[in-house]
Amino acid sequence: MAEPTNTPMPPSTPVPASTPRSGSPVRPIPSLNPSASTLTIPLWTSPDAPAKTRPTVLHIGDPVRYNPNTYLEFTQAFDVIRPTVSERERPEFIKALKEKRWGNFSAIFRPFWGSGGEMGRWDGEVIGLLPDSVKVFASAGAGFDWADTKLLGERGIIYCNSGLAAAEAVADFAVAMIISTFRHLPWCMGAATLAQTDAIARKAFQTCHAQATAVSHNPRGHILGLIGFGNIGQQIAAKMGNSAFGMKIAYFDIDRKSPEVETELGATFYESLSSLLRASDCVVLCTPASPDGKALITAETLASLRPGTRFVNIARGSLVDEDALADAIESGIVSAAALDVHADEPRPNPRLVKLAGLEGPNPGRVMMTCHNAGGTVETHIGFEKLSMRNILAVLQGEEPLTPVNLDFLVPRPRRGSDY
After folding, report:
1. Which of 118, 311, 344, 361 could make an S-S bridge to 337, C-beta 3.0–4.6 Å?
2. What is the domain partition of the chain in residue ranges?
3. Topology agreement, domain 51-165+377-418 and domain 166-368
4. Whole-structure pTM over 0.90, yes or no?
5. What is the rounded CA–CA span in Å between residue 137 and residue 354?
6. What is d(CA 125, CA 225) in angstroms, rounded to the nearest whole number?
7. Largest CA distance in the chain
8. Cα–Cα distance for residue pair 351/340, rounded to 1 Å
9. Phi and psi torsions of 59, nearest 5°
10. SS3 for the chain, per residue?
11. Which CATH superfamily is domain 166-368 in?
């Protein structure tokens, strides 16, 4: 899912092999359907209780848009403070934390990925100024490479993302991108658009009509290699495998899934990334981060691909060495690619942009979109509600729903003054 345009996107925070990620929830997740019941007011308070008896939540970013009834109950359960836009700019935000302008707040709530990141990266400078009372940071969006989740955990703060809410939208988008790599949709769509102008452009239409067939294939029977097999990866497998598109599902993940999951989805586990790449006809990158925080798709890993393999990225742009990918496309190792995320957003790699165009002997080799995969109304409904539920769970002493940094968590003694 897209991260906010006002938040930098540095390399991902390292995630160790045993970290329970939002892609592999630690317990069943309640319904996120818009018609689902709203929050239950905690026992520590009531709507008539004075605000000082309630935990304080720092709400950064835009107002809640899609769950007004749930947010009403949320504001009854907690003393919610929403800093102004100017207060969220990094210098003023840091100043406010030093002044303890918002007191000993217990949680940070960021319900919308398009705002709330004005202070930039959550690094040691910002995290070090948070009061000891903070127990949870719940944010919209699937990615968390703009926040040092390891350092948050070492401060005793659970970071929860909202990737679960975006899983279906991202998986649906991935289906379109996978099909694009098999059917060369950028070429077909681009040539049809050009055909409305002049005789040269109409020739592009006729050329595509005549020649695209020779390089297009049905996905059925081909091996789909999924790098990452959490919620999104499993939904892609369900949509592309079995009787739907009939692809054979293979995956690599730092945590092998249960035999029941593998059997249900017809998925074969590969013990290494290189072995998965060697076996796949189309590779989809759908993991939230790499184990060491570095790019996963490099010249070295791309060398494991068989000539003509297809590649899709709906994860993080920073996980791919884009020049190495461009080299692989130009050499024919990768026959077609589809990229929703980019390393230097909002500036896609110029070599890949050129490969997405209609010039040259191999037009439209790359589909490129603007970090749109998770962007639906239903996703944002879930972002808001899941973030509120994570905060409610943690502050009531229950397990968080979608934590990403439990392996780094250093518990702190609970003090009455925290609230």
Report:
1. 311
2. 51-165+377-418, 166-368
3. yes
4. no
5. 40
6. 40
7. 77
8. 16
9. -95, 110
10. CCCCCCCCCCCCCCCCCCCCCCCCCCCCCCCCCCCCCCCCCCCCCCCCCCHHHCCEEEECCCCCCCCHHHHHHHHHHCEEECCCHHHHCHHHHHHHHHHCCCCCCCEEEECCCCCCCCCCCECHHHHCCCCCCCCEEEECCCCCCCECHHHHHHCCCEEECCHHHHHHHHHHHHHHHHHHHHHCHHHHHHHHHHCCCCHHHHHHHHHHHHHHHHHCCCCCCCEEEEECCCHHHHHHHHHHCCCCCCCEEEEECCCCCCHHHHHHHCEEECCCHHHHHHHCCEEEECCCCCCCCCCCECHHHHCCCCCCEEEEECCCHHHECHHHHHHHHHHCCEEEEEECCCCCCCCCCHHHHHHHCCCCCCCCCEEECCCCCCCCHHHHHHHHHHHHHHHHHHHCCCCCCCECCHHHCCCCCCCHHHC
11. NAD(P)-binding Rossmann-like Domain (3.40.50.720)
The structure tokens 């690599």 sit at 252
User: What gap in Å lies between CA 293 and CA 262, rounded to an integer?
Assistant: 27
In order along its 419 residues, the chain shows pLDDT tens digits of 333 333 333 333 333 333 334 333 333 334 434 344 445 545 444 455 554 578 999 999 999 999 999 999 999 999 999 999 999 999 999 999 999 999 999 999 999 888 999 999 999 999 999 999 999 999 998 777 789 999 999 999 999 998 889 999 999 999 999 999 999 999 999 888 876 667 777 888 899 999 999 999 999 999 999 999 999 999 999 999 987 899 999 999 989 999 999 999 999 999 999 999 999 999 999 987 666 668 999 999 999 999 999 999 999 999 999 999 999 999 999 999 999 999 999 999 999 999 999 887 788 999 999 999 999 999 999 999 999 999 999 999 999 999 999 999 987 654 433 33
Pair of tokens at residue 55: 């935990």
Sign (positive/negative) of CA torsion 343, 212, 236, 388?
positive
User: CA 260, CA 244: separation in Å to the nearest integer?
Assistant: 20
Locate tokens 């994570």: which residue? 390
Residue 78 burial class via C-beta count within 10 angstroms: exposed 0-12, middle 13-18, buried 19 and up: buried
Of 249, 237, 305, 308, which is closest to residue 277 (Cα–Cα)? 305
d(CA 9, CA 316): 9
Tokens representing 322 are: 């884009």
CATH 3.40.50.720 fits 51-165+377-418, yes or no: yes
Structure tokens at 134: 């903070």
Whether 225 contacts 284, CB under 8 Å: yes
